Amino acid sequence: MKTLIITAITLFSSYGMAQETNGENIQGDFDGNGTKEYAYTKVSDCGDECEGKCETTIYFSDKNIKPITISPANQGSLYNLGDLNGDGKEEIGFYPNWCTSCWHPFYVYTLSKTGWKPLLPSISTHCNQWEEDRFPIKKDPKKKGYVIVTSSKWEDDDIKIKVNSVKVN
């Protein structure tokens, strides 16, 4: 029975998860026009030890969609987060690689009429959170216009994982 419950939880928790890529492309309707584009990353001016400017730029197959540049970042993982704010466009997430530390921000971008903008401030994450498979953001199924943000905080001399429902739009 315990195995059945664990299997069910694993299946349900993976349902609706964000689509991820690391160094390849990811598809999505990021501009809301009904056509899938793909996004991909390129790193510039970054050595093996993260010396240099270390910028990662997210480019899109539709050249009308402006690129996003994240610095510092030595490559990273792209995620199609689905339409988190109900505007008909899929949001994009980026988890940057870096040469030191387990603390990394998770960025969530939405496309507006003027270009890409953060959907919310970057989400503080620690590798412990990722090892526990605690993804930083998903749509709140109980509250329209809200997302569930899972973040890592240093508190009481320990790393704590916090979960909050946050309004977006």
What are the SSEs and their pairings?
Layout: H1 2-14, E1 19-22, E2 26-28, E3 37-44, E4 55-60, E5 68-70, E6 76-82, E7 91-96, E8 103-112, E9 115-118, E10 123-126, H2 127-131, E11 137-139, E12 146-155, E13 158-167
Antiparallel strand pairs: 1-6, 2-3, 3-4, 4-5, 6-7, 7-8, 8-9, 8-10, 11-12, 12-13
Structure description:
The protein has two helices and 13 strands. The protein is flat. The chain has helices at 2-14, 127-131; strands at 19-22, 26-28, 37-44, 55-60, 68-70, 76-82, 91-96, 103-112, 115-118, 123-126, 137-139, 146-155, 158-167. It has one domain. Residues 1-22 have low confidence and may be disordered. The strands form three sheets. Strands 1, 6, 7, 8, 9 and 10 form a six-stranded antiparallel beta sheet that branches. Strands 2-3-4-5 form a four-stranded antiparallel beta sheet, with no helix packed on it. With 169 residues, it is mainly beta. The longest helix is centred in the N-terminal third of the chain and has 13 residues, at 2-14.
Descriptors:
169 residues, mainly beta, 6-stranded antiparallel β-sheet, 4-stranded antiparallel β-sheet, 2 helices, 13 strands, 11% helix, flat, disordered N terminus
